[in-house]
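Protocol step 4 of 6: record predicted structures for both targets in the notebook before any analysis. Target 1:
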Amino acid sequence: MARTLALFDLDNTLLTDDSDYLWGRCLADAGLVDGPSYEAANARYYALYKAGDLDIHAFLEFALRPLREVPLARLLALRERFVTEWIAPRVAPDAAALIERHRRDGHLPVIITATNRFVTGPIAALLGVPALIATEPEWLATGFSGRAVDPPCFRDGKVARLQSWQERYGYQNAYTYFYSDSHNDLPLLERVDAPCAVDADEALSAAAAARGWPHISLRAAG
């Protein structure tokens, strides 16, 4: 078993856009939600996320509602098209090379993301990443409840979810890399052995410079 973890944020890190936001747009485009009002709320929550002001519980109440209200068969069919048409063209050009470099070095690649597992499971498969730590939509006997299992994989919750995952799979003492674009990931970046900013937002770029962390881009191949 690999004793080193290579953690990757997903949205705007391995991807050049945000899969959570894009999934909302895809739902509206497919007519599975009320288009104009849903898109306006989706854009508002995305702006709050980027500003560091997102109430994750309010957002998840909004974002997971379609999992409860739309028939699962329709969601699964849309998700397949979403990954092919919306996500595959937005994989960062150098993402695969970075993941493969860590794999060659014997490290275990792991995607760790606030975006829920229903959306991100097939994206991790597309990227060839075997392990995924994500916000978990609650599943009941009758289907998705529209709620998330606590804690959401966001900010300090991302730290907690990683710790639980490490304990479950025996990686408590693993040397850990973490690549992220977002200042929302500072709680985890400050805890890992090898933090790295990737195409970072302004706040994370400043924090990385102040702490002497590397700052790379995956958006220009090579």
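Target 2:
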Amino acid sequence: MTAPRPGRPVRGSNTGRPLMAALDLFGRRWNLRIVWELRHGPVGFRALQQRCDDMSSSVLRQRLTELVDARIVAQEPDTAYALTELGRGAYLALRPLDRWSAAWAATLDEDGEH
């Protein structure tokens, strides 16, 4: 399976608008988690698998293949995986959502709904 690409039909968009392609890519289970876990630097396969709650190795390989194909992640010569420049940009785009989600959780806690 190849990664969603802008300009090609993706889930939710026959035109493959860039935002819809990104939402399709990051909406696939584990892809955002992998980006998040690579935010501090390169990580080997087994360590990444452990950081992702010991997901199956076949699913991790599939997701890494998609993210490498999308140029979000690169495999280093020592076989560790790291974010590319595009991947770091995706992580930076997620930071405001991380702050928002913390405020959301705090609000729910205050209301006794969490």
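Step 5 preliminary note on target 2. The longest strand covers residues 73-75. The domain at 18-110 is CATH 1.10.10.10 (Arc Repressor Mutant, subunit A).
Proceed to step 6 after PI sign-off.
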